[in-house]
Amino acid sequence: MPTFRYQAYTSEGKSSRGRIEGLSSKDVRERLLAEGLYVRDVKPVSEGGGHKAFSLQARGMFYRELSALLHAGLPLDRALEILSEHPELGSGDDVLPLIRDLLREGQTFSICLQQHFPGIREDEVAVLAAGEAAGSLAEVAGELAEFLDQESRVSDQLRSALVYPSVVFGLVLVVMGVLVGYLLPVYEKLLEGLNQTLPALTLFILNVGSALRHPAGILVMVMLLGLLIRGVRNMMKHPESFLPEKRFQVPVLGFTVASLARARFARTLSLLMEGGVGLPEGVQVAGRATGSVYLGSKCNEAAEQISQGMRVAEAIGALPVLQEDLPGWIRAGEASGDLSGMLRHAAQSHQRAWDRGLTRILSLVEPLLIISVGVLILVVALAILLPMLKVNQSLGF
Fold first, then answer.
1. Low-confidence winner among 46-60, 174-188, 235-249 (lowest mean pLDDT)
2. 3-state secondary structure string, the chain?
3. Which pLDDT score is estimated for 91?
4. Closest Cα partner for 39 from 29, 48, 31, 24?
5. Could you tell me which of 96, 103, 97, 112 has the C-alpha nearest to residue 75?
């Protein structure tokens, strides 16, 4: 039976809401009335729409608990029913009840998730479809939960790495605002009575300060700041579109980004192979999981070559960024008969390289920010001191 969401009132006027299974809206109203509830609204969960995307942490929790319930011997629809009442997963949302209803109608789990589970990625769907076909959905869901936990830790590292630069940048804006908005107007009035030609640097700073204090200047500054914040958000939301090819060639940053791409590729391909996905499809999906449009297109070409008979190590060895040492890991895996295991070890190795690279970048960010702040303050200080020195020289001091 389909699931309905209802809003009702008791005879005392208290509000009541929830979900209930029924043959139709009329059947649900009659059942609720028999329980003493006066229905205000009742709708099938399939008409909910607008569901909020599940985060990496939420999807990892979902797969982990689903794996535990399936290992305990519960059928899939019953497991989804239990998870739909979870306060961090299904409570207040109709996604899991809707998927359960579709399963009971005969649709496959992976297709239901792909169509109705907000935030799910293509590699997750491919792994679940393979596990569902092989009858190992519980094991695959557990592996997928561990995989998403690792991805979540990487995302947390990136967000943490941006906290310190953001705080320092905010402090710089405050300091410059005080200098330009308060000190410079006072200083400008003092300079008006000197009858001296002002240095070019001082004139430039005074003109900039005057422009920024004007309403039009403030509007332009706010717009530029808004565009900067929007650009940073878009870059964080869609990192694959930011310098798709050149970012791997930037000193220090390129090594770190390449390490993360290799770790994601190896980890995703390992997970897909363990789930029963074929190598050509696995290479395609793993390429898209790197977070780079450029690598994704190259992996599509490699997958085509693998499907035509080329060895995996040779196809990956021809790819930029991935060709450094992944072919060696793949050859070792093919020789040992445990390719997925060797790819997992490769992912761990590149994850450690990513950690080292991120630490190195953060160690450079702090002194660079301090130097940048010092240079800005030095420029403003020189703009203030140079006229004073010129006056002192003219007076013979």
1. 235-249
2. CCEEEEEEECCCCCEEEEEEECCCHHHHHHHHHHCCCEEEEEEEHHHCCCCCCCCHHHHHHHHHHHHHHHHCCCCHHHHHHHHCCCCCCCCCCCHHHHHHHHHHCCCCHHHHHHHHCCCCCHHHHHHHHHHHHHCCHHHHHHHHHHHHHHHHHHHHHHHHHHHHHHHHHHHHHHHHHHHHHHHHHHHHHHHHCCCCCCCHHHHHHHHHHHHHHCHHHHHHHHHHHHHHHHHHHHHHHCHHHCCCCHHHHCCCHHHHHHHHHHHHHHHHHHHHHHCCCCHHHHHHHHHHHCCCHHHHHHHHHHHHHHHCCCCHHHHHHCCCCCCCCHHHHHHHHHHHCCHHHHHHHHHHHHHHHHHHHHHHHHHHHHHHHHHHHHHHHHHHHHHHHHHHHHHHHHCCC
3. 44
4. 29
5. 103
Contact in structure between 16 and 9 (CB atoms under 8 Å): yes
Bridging pattern class, strands 3-9 and 38-44: antiparallel
Task: Give me the long-range contacts of 241-245 (CB less than 8 A, separation at least 24).
Answer: 241/293, 244/292, 244/293, 244/294, 245/294
Q: What's the pTM?
A: 0.62
Q: For the packed helices 122-134 and 109-116, what is the interaxial angle rounded to 10 degrees?
A: 160
Mean pLDDT of 157-162: 70
What digits encode the pLDDT tens for the residues 76-116? 888 888 887 776 665 446 677 778 878 888 888 888 888 77
Q: What is the sign of the dihedral through the CA atoms of 242, 243, 245 and 246?
A: negative
Strands 38-44 and 15-21: unpaired
Q: What is the pLDDT of residues 49-62, one digit of tens each?
A: 555 667 778 888 88
pLDDT of amino acid 132: 79
- Amino acid symbol at 385: L
Query: How far is it, in rounded angstroms, from Cα 79 to Cα 183?
Result: 66
| 13-27, 205-219, 311-325: range with lowest mean pLDDT | 13-27
- Per cent of the chain over pLDDT 70 is 78
Residues 6 or more apart whose Cβ sits within 8 Å of residue 260: 154, 291, 350, 354
